[in-house]
Amino acid sequence: MAFGALRTVSYPGAGLERRRSDRKPFRQRRRRGERMHALGVEMDLVRPEEVMHHVAAAVATGERFCVANYNLHGVHLAHKDPDYAQFCDSADVIEVDSTPIIFFTRLLGLHSRPFHRCTYLDWREHFWSLANREGWRVYYLGGAPGVPDTAAERLGRCYPGAVIKARHGYFDASAGSADNAEILAEIAAFQPQILFVGMGMPRQEAWLVHHADQIPPCVTFSVGAAFDYEAGVQRAAPRWMGRVGVEWLYRLARDPRRLFGRYLIEPWSLAGVALADIALAIRLKRLFRSPPPDGHRPAAHGEPATEAALVKPASLVR
Length: 318
What we know:
Radius of gyration: 19 Å
Structural class: alpha/beta
Strand order of the largest sheet: 4-3-8-7-5-6
Oligomer: single chain
């Protein structure tokens, strides 16, 4: 399977064909070092196109498959919120949605690279191109009333082969509520191959955890404000800002009241686990050192399940 450069698609009237050339080849099997342990959690070093490969394989077989993601806020929640931690622990792929995490783990001598930063905005064009060609059924739950409908309409014009259904996220999510029962019945009737839940951290993850056994087999994503971006009610930072690690400054400037604590106070709660990671890297003599390119460095004596020893379960090897 060949993969290559992506062409930016913009509204209105975005074309259905994104490729200027064949895509560059990528690995379709996992190898050592692609699941790393840092800041007290586990994350997968995967490129956006690798995520889409595994998603397409799961859709083709009709199996359950879950994609989670960690940014620094998510890591903070994983240490504080049991539902959020359970969601990430049960996920098949855990994307790294944070350039600062990439930089930090690189400092620790792990295998992370800038191209491992991976989130909805990094793979959206590839995803919707696949959904369009394959006729995927996509259900989106989240956003303010009217917003997901607008997003679905815009996406439907650009990708008419995709079957999209959307519902806002302003409902009673408590166990046994009439709203919950109605939404779950709607999802069951629609039989999606892809389920996006975008209700903000940690509500979206908690909802998926609490209703996992009531959702039909499909690929599930927690995607935050994805459809807010598609509807045009939120403006995403330029992608170059994410690549250099300053996207948070853009978002902080646009919404300082909501994000001040998240970006300037919360990260300090991770100081203890960060120092422990640095101490381990020093003891193992890998601080500031690049790992071998083949990812097969043997684990040092006493080293926990890190990039040297931990392999993703076979469910992700296709």
